[in-house]
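Predict the 3D structure for this chain.
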Amino acid sequence: MGTGYNTDQKLIHTCSRKLGISDFPVTGTTVPIGAIPKGSRIMSTTVFLITAFGPGTSASFLVGSPGDDDFLVAAGDVGELTVAVYGPMLTSRMVLTGDLSVLAKLTYGTAMTTGELHVVIEYDPPVNLEDMPTQFDT
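Done. Predicted structure below.
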């Protein structure tokens, strides 16, 4: 688990997590990726598919929030069966009005035994760095 620290400089931050098939033991499992603080502006999301998900013939990977499971990555944005870099997927770059819990969800038809990916969300932290915690887990 990574740790983010505040500095006196304005930097682009990331919220990221490496996930494997073992994180999704049953279809539809939701896994936390991290949190993005209130006042941040999400810049982009990139998914690095390291090992294709298989041996199934279909899968759908989503990244979002508890209220909107495909807010950042929607069905079809990632080819879960093909190793590649997907993104950067750009968002509307709106300013978050509250803290955002970022979740990943994988659904599949046939049981899968392989698959690994890394999700990286870049965000511009709040202008007022005092709004951010001194240290937070991602």
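Residues 133-138 have pLDDT under 50 and may be disordered.
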